[in-house]
Amino acid sequence: MNDETLCCCEYYDSLNERNHILACCCNCVDLDEAVDSLIRGKSVSEKNKTGFLNTMQERLRIPWIGGARQIAFDTILPVFILPIMLFLASISLWWTVFSFTTVAIFLLLIFNFFIRAIPNTKFFLTWTVTSILLLYFIFEFVVIPFLEILVEENIALSALIFFFIICFYTTKIKANELAQLGIEATESLVGKSINGFYSCQICNAKIPDKDHHCVWFDCCISKYNQFYFISALFFAVVALLYSSNLTLTSVCHPFRFYKAILLPDDCSDVYYQFELSLSFVSAIYSLILAAILLMLLLQQLMLISVGFSLKEWNKLTFLSKLCLGLNKKRPHNRGFIKNWSRILCLNKPQYHPLDREV
């Protein structure tokens, strides 16, 4: 590495050449080819997409003392998208529908694009973390000042979020340990097959008893951390439902459902004040997240019970899914009790070589 002093806008690129951030749009072959393809009405190749994104990711930098610092554009996108979405959604009912619909379409379009172009993207993990922080911030600093939330209700919600964070963190820690185990097994058993280890192109490692890779947690889910993953989903669903109910009964006209249990009734006046509308749309966003996570949770519970991994489940036909896969061969099924015993017994997996590759 060259030791010459850099100004705040200079940096050394991947070829160890000195560059300036003002030249970020220059000498980009992949960008030129992509624009040329679009002008000619041709599709942009995956190679050009990947090359353009990698070049953009390297050149997207901010001035800093001692040289420009690199920032990953895909990682910081949620930090801007989510606050803008909630702000626009707070304007009126139609803006709420428009903002949520636009972001949902954006996520659907960008999901496959990022997975193919930047497999190890942190976009989805940042979306998860930003959603947690943003919703909790709005609840604590916008909803709580309405003085409708009891102290014990706030403590209960904070406890749920705390348990979710613990399970979320443990899931990732266990996933890192499993990935490291796969690396050690691959290095120590060079040229030999490893029974029960499955390759993950995103983690770039072999994971024992892999179920699937969760982009929102940015880690692989295996039989050995699936319990923490399910627990994280459970606490997240309960926290989101609880916080949304507390918020809606604070900003809307509530009615007594049963004893001390309140439910929202009339929310027609929430858009007349920004604090009310912001709290309202954050509650709606919480309900949407809760619905999605609840479906994921129920899917995980069902797959464990019948003895399928998510990868195996996705390969089934629609008719087989209607039958819960019971009409198909399930090589990993050991029966309901043993299936759950594998998930609840959190022993570290072992590896040994076999004559065939799994």
From TrEMBL:
<feature type="transmembrane region" description="Helical">
    <location>
        <begin position="278"/>
        <end position="298"/>
    </location>
</feature>
<feature type="transmembrane region" description="Helical">
    <location>
        <begin position="227"/>
        <end position="248"/>
    </location>
</feature>
<feature type="domain" description="Palmitoyltransferase DHHC">
    <location>
        <begin position="200"/>
        <end position="313"/>
    </location>
</feature>
<keyword id="KW-0012">Acyltransferase</keyword>
<feature type="transmembrane region" description="Helical">
    <location>
        <begin position="127"/>
        <end position="149"/>
    </location>
</feature>
<feature type="transmembrane region" description="Helical">
    <location>
        <begin position="97"/>
        <end position="115"/>
    </location>
</feature>
<dbReference type="Pfam" id="PF01529">
    <property type="entry name" value="DHHC"/>
</dbReference>
<dbReference type="GO" id="GO:0019706">
    <property type="term" value="F:protein-cysteine S-palmitoyltransferase activity"/>
</dbReference>
<feature type="transmembrane region" description="Helical">
    <location>
        <begin position="71"/>
        <end position="91"/>
    </location>
</feature>
<feature type="transmembrane region" description="Helical">
    <location>
        <begin position="155"/>
        <end position="171"/>
    </location>
</feature>
<keyword id="KW-0808">Transferase</keyword>
<keyword id="KW-0472">Membrane</keyword>
<keyword id="KW-1133">Transmembrane helix</keyword>
<dbReference type="InterPro" id="IPR039859">
    <property type="entry name" value="PFA4/ZDH16/20/ERF2-like"/>
</dbReference>
<comment type="similarity">
    <text>Belongs to the DHHC palmitoyltransferase family.</text>
</comment>
<dbReference type="InterPro" id="IPR001594">
    <property type="entry name" value="Palmitoyltrfase_DHHC"/>
</dbReference>
<dbReference type="GO" id="GO:0016020">
    <property type="term" value="C:membrane"/>
</dbReference>
<keyword id="KW-0812">Transmembrane</keyword>
<protein>
    <recommendedName>
        <fullName>Palmitoyltransferase</fullName>
        <ecNumber>2.3.1.225</ecNumber>
    </recommendedName>
</protein>
